[in-house]
């Protein structure tokens, strides 16, 4: 295996990118789309040059996205056709049957569905357009932005927070009253129950 960080200067079609997760927070995707529309064409071109999508090249020579799924989905929905990618690792020499195991060992894949249930690797979507909505992932993303927890380098840290919230808040609250859900999520984030999660920043005053 070759670990590297190499920008690919040739544009790569967004729809050729293979996801390594099953879900995104569609609320977060919509926010990224909104911000994208606020820029003119010149600014958009600069942003596309700076925001390269990190990928691992698989034995089938496809590009497997290991981060920025929300950005890729937002760009796709805004009609962008191509992106630049940054190759994090070349796994073209890995046997196909071992590929997903290798990704899992590096924590480069998160095969959990919108209910937090682990699924077989074969159930991962084949393109960015087939990622499904997990409202708790949106809740976790917004929770971080409002200071509920700190940004952390732990892979899939916001999914870990999403699963924490999923076990404690009704899905209908997240769907019908997002502001109320954030209020409840903030209280949960400061509790001792969340102390094991990446980016936890307390305080945990339960008295």
Description of the molecule:
The chain has about 210 residues and is an alpha/beta fold. The chain folds into two domains: about 130 residues, Conserved hypothetical protein from pyrococcus furiosus pfu- 392566-001, ParB domain (Alpha-Beta Complex); about 60 residues, Ubiquitin-associated (UBA) domain (Helicase, Ruva Protein, domain 3). The chain contains eight helices and six strands. Strands 1-5-3-4 form a four-stranded mixed beta sheet, with no helix packed on it. A two-stranded parallel ribbon has the order 2-6. Strand 3 and strand 4 form a beta hairpin. The longest helix has 12 residues. The protein is globular, with a radius of gyration of 18 Å. The relative contact order is 0.17. The mean pLDDT is about 90.
Produce the secondary structure layout:
Elements: E1 2-13, E2 23-24, H1 26-37, H2 41-50, E3 53-57, E4 63-65, H3 69-77, E5 82-90, H4 96-105, E6 132-133, H5 135-145, H6 157-166, H7 171-176, H8 178-189
Parallel strand pairs: 2-6, 3-5
Antiparallel strand pairs: 1-5, 3-4
Helix pairs in contact: 1-3, 5-6, 5-8
